[in-house]
User: Fold this.
Amino acid sequence: MAGSVKASKIKSILISQPRPESEKSPWFELERKYKLKMDFRPFIQVEPISAKEFRQQRINILDYTAIILNSRNSVDHFFRMCTEMKQEMPAEMKYFCVNESIANYLAKYIQVRKRKIFVGKGTEMELFPLFKNHLTEKYLFACSDWRKQDIEKFMKKSKIEFKEGYFYKIKSSDLSDLTHVNYDIIAFFSPADIRSLFENFPEFKQNKTLIAGFGATTIKAMIDAGLVANVQAPTPQTPSMIMAIDKHIEAHNKGI
Assistant:
């Protein structure tokens, strides 16, 4: 994959996520608004691990009093494993969710109103004050084999009982068919997306391609990889990636 070299209006975007199921998605409104060529291509693949693989970690879920959940994938695969291992979560189990969206998603598996759920403000580090208020809990972090170490470092420093449990794997997708395809904007949503980009295209050069990143850890991974984060979200003005890209395209195209 090469960077775009045209100094013209933005006409194409690659979104490193699956195509939305609903045609009413705001992405398609953005596509129509600017007459864009918009492609969706997941840069990563989520793979479940088996109950046998999970048991090799020597984790008994019911030994813990609090579960940390940082994504919908973590919710899905945590409860999938509970079902496979025939372990029913007790009503007193506490759930610490990175954001409100994940907390709401819990309703797919439990009666939210009857459970103790604690919600952060968008990043794992913003859960730390909540952990400090519940120092005696035994925490299990339901994560993948590809995760940040912020929570682990904090828990060790704070001497809070804590264990990481891998419930699924994240692997880079095969993007070889994009080798000779250029986009004006590429949007990334996780550090694993950046890893996949360079695993697939070790010689990738940004050139004039605009790079959009969602979340502080994604943007940090972009910068660490030598990329310029042209579009960043969330911000107070643009809380979603779509809003951030919309604002950037409008300003960019006016300047052409």
